[in-house]
Amino acid sequence: MNPDTPVRTSDSLRNVRYEIRGKLARRAQELARKGYEIISLNIGNPALFGFRTPETMRLAMIENFQESEGYCHQKGIFPAREAVVMQQQARGVTGVSAEEVFIGNGVSELIDLALRALLNDGDEVLVPSPDYPLWTAAVNLNRGRAIHYPCRPENGFVPDPAEIEALVTPRTRAIVIVNPNNPTGAVYPRSVLAAIARLAEQRGLVVMSDEIYDQVLYDNAEFVPMATLVHDAVCVTMSGLSKVYRACGYRVGWAVISGRMRAAQDFLEAMELLASLRLCSNVPGQWAVQTALGGHQSIRELTSPGGRLYESRRAIVEAARANPLLTVSQPQGALYAFVRVDSDRLPGFDDQAFALELLERKHVLVAPGVSFNVPYRDHFRVTNLPDAATLAAVFTRMGELLGEMADRPPLSR
Q1: Domain 55-294 has what CATH class?
Q2: Which pTM does this prediction carry?
Q3: What CATH number should be reported for the domain whose range is 11-52+301-408?
Q4: Cβ(196)–Cβ(175) under 8 Å?
Q5: How far apart are CA 276 and CA 394, in angstroms?
């Protein structure tokens, strides 16, 4: 056998992509190694922009290090799970105990575990478009088929329950909700969420609600926990420490199973089996959960007028609206804006080609819209984690490049 024959990789990766950390990010690293200063707006990593985890959470971990050297229960340490239960109860979610809470190595791991516990070959999962791409990838990796329901730009990226219902087939097993939304910043109205809950109950679908940005809200936007609306179906609520508490590296997320618990028993057992196979999640970080959820919620200071996230979001919106080639739906939550380029004035515009040229020539890294499983090629995502001055400078560079593109002869586009 030829020793240079490439190792064959899994066919399950054929429809899996994660461009947020893909070729563009690797090229940015190459440029950085050559000495260029790259402004990376492609990923929501608060620590990269100077945000710190609350000190009380760090102290909670330090004080419990001696209790963190061995494996814990496969579902997680009891104080962390009980803190999650208390948060859910305070939000109006009933019938949940620590036995229905799973702590994972971030929400990412729990997405994979939940889908692995649920899906068989060819099962369908309704996933938003645009989506956080891990959802589509995880469905495909776990033998399912992601069916994308549109969250249209002209509707402020809020889905239409009637359009979702039209996509339900006998193979549909679950529906994914990402609220507040990544990448668009949309916060879904109660009426829309209630209609989706009724649809799930009528069609026997599991609701998987990704609520990692549940407290990152602007302008008095109302966050409605999906579990308060889903009563006669199984609801899996996912959240964690990474965004609200600026603790991405702690790798602590949780999944809460609620709703029609009699129907959830086999699913709970499957989740526990899979959780047992990975032994347990990161133990030191779990000791920060009780302090985080029960302590001062400093995120509100950051998202209120005058707060850094609020002002950075405003800088993005104002800069985008000042450029005649750009439009943006004002984010109501999360850490991103999904910006549209006027492809009528820039015929042939391609988001990936633009992102690469922006990186090479202006040293700004953004995530092209196609990364988020949309059928159009005229959007890109930026994070509002940098300070307002940095973002204003970024949009000046973008404006320069877009102006040059608009002046190019049509044949070169």
Answers
A1: alpha beta
A2: 0.93
A3: 3.90.1150.10
A4: yes
A5: 46
